[in-house]
Amino acid sequence: MTSTLGIAVIGAGRMGADHVRRIGRTVGGARVVAVADPDGDRAKEAVAGLDGVSAHSDAVAAVAAPGVDAVLVASPGPAHEEALLHALARELPVLCEKPLTPDPAGALRVLEAERRLGRRLVQVGFMRRFDAEYERLKELLDGGGIGRPLFLHCRHRNAASPSFFTSDMLISDSVVHEVDAARWLLGQEITAVTVLSPTPSAAAPEGLGDPRFVLLETSGGAIVDVEIFVNCGFGYQVQCEAVGESGSARIGDAQAMVVQSAGRWGGEIAQDFLTRFADAYDRQVRRWVAAAARGRIDGPDVWDGYAAAVVSEAGITAARSGVRTPVELVERPALYR
Amino acid sequence: MTSTLGIAVIGAGRMGADHVRRIGRTVGGARVVAVADPDGDRAKEAVAGLDGVSAHSDAVAAVAAPGVDAVLVASPGPAHEEALLHALARELPVLCEKPLTPDPAGALRVLEAERRLGRRLVQVGFMRRFDAEYERLKELLDGGGIGRPLFLHCRHRNAASPSFFTSDMLISDSVVHEVDAARWLLGQEITAVTVLSPTPSAAAPEGLGDPRFVLLETSGGAIVDVEIFVNCGFGYQVQCEAVGESGSARIGDAQAMVVQSAGRWGGEIAQDFLTRFADAYDRQVRRWVAAAARGRIDGPDVWDGYAAAVVSEAGITAARSGVRTPVELVERPALYR
Amino acid sequence: MTSTLGIAVIGAGRMGADHVRRIGRTVGGARVVAVADPDGDRAKEAVAGLDGVSAHSDAVAAVAAPGVDAVLVASPGPAHEEALLHALARELPVLCEKPLTPDPAGALRVLEAERRLGRRLVQVGFMRRFDAEYERLKELLDGGGIGRPLFLHCRHRNAASPSFFTSDMLISDSVVHEVDAARWLLGQEITAVTVLSPTPSAAAPEGLGDPRFVLLETSGGAIVDVEIFVNCGFGYQVQCEAVGESGSARIGDAQAMVVQSAGRWGGEIAQDFLTRFADAYDRQVRRWVAAAARGRIDGPDVWDGYAAAVVSEAGITAARSGVRTPVELVERPALYR
Amino acid sequence: MTSTLGIAVIGAGRMGADHVRRIGRTVGGARVVAVADPDGDRAKEAVAGLDGVSAHSDAVAAVAAPGVDAVLVASPGPAHEEALLHALARELPVLCEKPLTPDPAGALRVLEAERRLGRRLVQVGFMRRFDAEYERLKELLDGGGIGRPLFLHCRHRNAASPSFFTSDMLISDSVVHEVDAARWLLGQEITAVTVLSPTPSAAAPEGLGDPRFVLLETSGGAIVDVEIFVNCGFGYQVQCEAVGESGSARIGDAQAMVVQSAGRWGGEIAQDFLTRFADAYDRQVRRWVAAAARGRIDGPDVWDGYAAAVVSEAGITAARSGVRTPVELVERPALYR
After folding, report:
1. Of A26, A38, A4, A100, which is closest to residue A285 (Cα–Cα)?
2. Least CB-CB distance to D260: which of B234, B264, B265?
3. Domain B132-276 class in CATH
4. Which residues of B touch D159 (CB under 8 A)?
5. What is the pTM of this model?
């Protein structure tokens, strides 16, 4: 690579600031040239100490800033569509944090814009696809190492949920990661969702239906079950056991250091997703930078973002109604086959 | 203990013969005095080399044989009711292999007979309650070590199913163990059953709906999910993860010896339930013998056998219909509270 | 088996009383008929509630009591030789708790008595040979599963040492188990011992050289290293990793139940050798009873007891001197080949 | 960071080329500006496709090239001293792959040069200090989590040794990593070395004394034992168990994905140190770049390189003689305290 990719980062909150630091520290061949946040002070703070980076309160201005070769969207979901359409208008490669858009309708508009352009330029930030353990599991499944997959048993646990978390967000913000991971691992679409709601944990804030048990059926006749529990108390944990016709494989046990002390053996549990998936975030951005420099993407695309939005919506309906809810997708455009 | 408990073993098939050997070898304070099997030759074979044991082709005769202080029923399920009623008529303590009876109606008749007697004399052979790992899990849950239980995630796998196995038997013969274990671990009744059926494994015999995913709801608002897969190919495996409000606990990983060789680390998986639960069978019979010598039982009772039969029946209905099926029990008699 | 083996138990301390209970509860085909302890009250206490068992203050009387078919020696080491010689004089099968005798000279006298008799009647209670994990490791090594063994890395840890424990006993009471296990696993003799002494742990009682690191060289060119640490604080732990020319195998991790709670995953560590090796003790006695009924032994013999005594003595010398100490055995009699 | 650190890479073999790629891909704030290799073609190959990087056949020329702010030495050990002295003459920060120099005498000359300069500019590439698992172990030990350390039990295994490997290199190339890790983890110096040599594995090339068991004694009264086995056949494996006065901690088990199939459970073993320590290499260079930009080092220094050279030399002597060999260091200069 003979030149450096100039990146505009849209959104300077927790994720955006993290990406600015990441690009400065662990990504060769790229540098941040513009940062935008409606809170202009936050944008300035994120670029403090960095040379030659402009701060903006407007995403459109940042995308149009001089030297911008690619765009990283880390703003809140409702702001995604506008930033994506601007970047596509300029034919810039994009890495967009999930969700692509909060609802299927918006996702379809982005999909349509890209389809008209005739090139896939937007990558969605489902970073689990870049986690070393998920990659090994995918490789095993694709290689037929355990036969045709029959089940994915998934656990998704957070120590505690933030104050603004709602019952719907258990599906749209948390389980959406399993939705994408399942679609990717299996190479199948989700066809129906059922949600079981046990008596909520005493640790859950008033009114939050936590935990839940989400069942996804797939186009290939497999079953995906997800325990989502965002106030489990003991840490952040993502596990997945794939069961195939001739074997099973489990990731996420994370037994790095085993300590024996005071009558017990064991180890620590990570407390935070940025810790658990630190390497995945790094690898995602490095691979996206390498692809963007060639005008391509290297990861989940707009179709993946759209499908996730549809399944999320069906999941929220299923959780509210308590009954099995079918998932219906538009026909898949040729661009995404 | 100052004398030896004389036991009549009803049924000399695989389980019955195993019990005869067990009592001779690993159970102090007891000895087999009579063995019955409709196939008289099989009964004789089971007692060959044993001194002072009579062989019978009729269960009633064996129960009535001289020196019989207690009865161990290991005949096929449809033969249980008659043997149990005879033993109760003689007020003999009984250990009855599961199922208590094949259907709820028979179980209610046994329950009624015992209720009239006014004493609990029949113990049902749900031997998992005597497994060291299950005992530790029970102790942890009862002690509040992980808070109120929210989920039990269960795996129940066999390397291959016998030729006579049917789709119904996945529920009534296999999942029935999880039904009892869940009721015991949680101290709650099952209130509804849902069964999901993925596309059957290519390894399953024609017509067998294997694997299945069984969801049990409980009176305490917990969810129990069971992957039942009787042709998984790689071995016999029973795992259970309990998830509570403040932690989780998993049993069944069985990592006894770790071998590293040829680019891999790992170990063997048991191939057989008699291997996996050998100690549980031993402990069950030893504790039953000790209790029987005092005219008592020390394990699951007729109510447990009845409840398991009702849930099994509902599970079979749920599997056939594909919809959630409620479980309805008669009122629990005072004797079983 | 058509009759019941009558057993005299010599010694009614912790181990002896444990064996009395074991035979009553978990061993079919045998019963205790006599118990001896110099403290007659302790002998009486051990037989309380048992029918037809005589209590003695004299081992000789117990061995000669009516109905004695076999002898189980669980008295302190210095009392073993007398009991063994009496039992051999009566040609009774013996199970003798380790050590066979406290010193090589006594062991040679027992060996000579047995050699004159021309039959092996004495089995030494190295119960690890009956532990399921050790048995699997032995089977793996014998089957060539990891090639010719090069190393055994051993850990032997106690939560705390009893008040009477001495630095010599780290070798003669604790490491002696690894000495026998290594000889058995490898099928080789120990040829030299070196002992390294790190600065003692602050948790060790004044004057106790705890922990130590013991290096055994074998006749087959393998190295056995043993960390012996009898005040490790966190529990009782016996681990062994065998490293062969093409692989390694480790036992003793004992991860029965994995609990996640309060930011940690892990499990409990057994606190006591009677807990850790409960099944091994049971199996040892059951197999010895079955063999004794046929006038045989089924386990380590007097030669094994003698070799362990010689290595122990060399180990104590090595620990005191700090230098490598060769091990010299008498020629192995034909009876023990 | 407002400018980019220009790096000269000395040596374009496997390690050097790997570092050139690493800096281009995963290190922000730095770029390679010059590469030197006596084989000029190899230097040119390493810089192919990179813009503005000069290729040299002479290390001195590369160090003196325009834009060089720091030097990364990845040439063979005998070439290190010259490159280091040139870099020091120019007061450039250096990251030098281990060994600092092949012998203590050369290390002392570098130490003297740096001492005269009065600043620590040379960092030695013991990359294990940057491995996440080692870092957690170090943190645990420093925090007193398992009390004062008594033992480090180390395993260091390679699938197979390269053709040029010698018995001395088992110590100087392989165990030297444990020497540095032990000194760092314990914060103590090594005071003596003993080496035991089992009968070599049949898998070892003719004449290679593989495996060996190396015992290090430390200034704080701890014992470090290292199994070094460079033809173990099954993979690359680095494990370390620290045993303290109140607990133990083990790293290196690496159980990322657990697969069950064909009667076995388990996972893969890494085959290669660049795979096992990929993240450690990345993190080492990133942290060195950040430090070098401020004229500092952030890792093992010249004293660490010197001490490792002295222990290596003693270890080779100990392996040849078979006897315990003391380690003697010069007085530690104030600069390194």
Report:
1. A26
2. B234
3. alpha beta
4. 263
5. 0.94
From residue B147, give the alpha-carbon distance in Å to each of A201, B151, B190: 9, 11, 20
pLDDT at residue A12 is higher than 60: yes
Q: How many CB atoms lie within 10 A of CB A164?
A: 6
Chain B residues near residue C264 by CB distance under 8 angstroms = none
Predicted confidence (pLDDT) at residue C139 exceeds the cutoff of 60: yes
Query: What whole-number percentage of chain C has pLDDT above 90?
Result: 88
- Any idea which architecture C5-127+279-300 has in CATH? 3-Layer(aba) Sandwich (3.40)
What is the C-alpha separation between D22 and D4, in angstroms, rounded? Answer: 15
pLDDT of residue C256: 76
pLDDT per residue over A263-315, tens digit each? 888 888 888 888 889 999 999 999 999 999 999 999 999 999 999 999 999 99
Mutate to test the interface with C, among D223, D228, D229, D255 (most CBs of C within 10 A): D223
Interchain contact D256–A (C-beta under 8 A): yes
Q: Which residues 28-67 of chain B have a CB within 8 Å of chain A? A: none
Nearest chain C alpha carbon to A272: C263
CATH number of the D131-271+308-336 domain: 3.30.360.10
The residue among A146, A150, A229, A237 with the most chain B CBs within 10 A of its CB, best to mutate, is A150
Structure tokens at D138: 């170090």
Q: Which of residues 266-285 of A touch C (CB under 8 A)?
A: 266-269, 271
- Give the model confidence (pLDDT) of D298-326 as tens digits: 999 999 999 999 999 999 999 999 999 99
A49-54 contacts at long range (C-beta below 8 A, 24 or more positions apart) = A49/D1, A49/D2, A50/A20, A50/A24, A50/D1, A50/D2, A51/D2, A51/D3
Helical packing angle, D132-142 and D176-186, nearest 10°: 40
Chain B interface includes D256 (CB < 8 A): no
Measure CB to CB from residue C246 to each of D199, D217, D233 and give the nearest one: D233
How far is it, in rounded angstroms, from Cα A189 to Cα B166?
31
ipTM score of complex: 0.94
Q: Is the pLDDT of residue D1 over 70?
A: no
Rounded (5°) CA angle B95-B96-B99: 150
* Minimal Cβ distance to A136: which of D256, D282, D286: D256
Assigned architecture for domain A129-275+308-336: 2-Layer Sandwich (3.30)
Q: Inter-chain contact D263–B263, Cβ cutoff 8 Å?
A: no
pLDDT tens profile C205-240: 999 999 999 999 999 999 999 999 999 999 999 999
Q: Three-state SS for C305?
A: helix
Superfamily of A5-125+279-299 according to CATH: NAD(P)-binding Rossmann-like Domain (3.40.50.720)
Which residue, A62, A116, A104, is CA-closest to A316? A104
Cβ–Cβ under 8 Å, residues C232 and C222: no
- Examine the pLDDT at D2 and tell me if it is beyond 50: no
Q: Closest Cα partner for D260 from B255, A157, A220, A269?
A: B255
Element (H, E) at C317: helix C302-321
Report yes or no: C153 at the D interface, CB cutoff 8 Å: yes
* Annotation: CATH topology of D5-128+279-301: Rossmann fold (3.40.50)
Domain covering B5-127+279-299 in this structure, CATH number: 3.40.50.720
Distance (Å) from the C-alpha of residue C135 to the closest C-alpha of chain D? 18
The strand pair at D149-157 and D190-196 is best described as unpaired
- For strand C30-36 and strand C54-56, is the pairing parallel, antiparallel, or unpaired? parallel
Chain A partners (3+ C-beta pairs within 8 A): B, C, D
Q: Which residue in chain D is spatially nearest to B236 when comparing CA positions?
A: D263
Q: Are A234 and B223 within 8 A, CB to CB?
A: no
Contact assessment for residue C235 and residue C269, using Cβ atoms and an 8 Å cutoff = yes
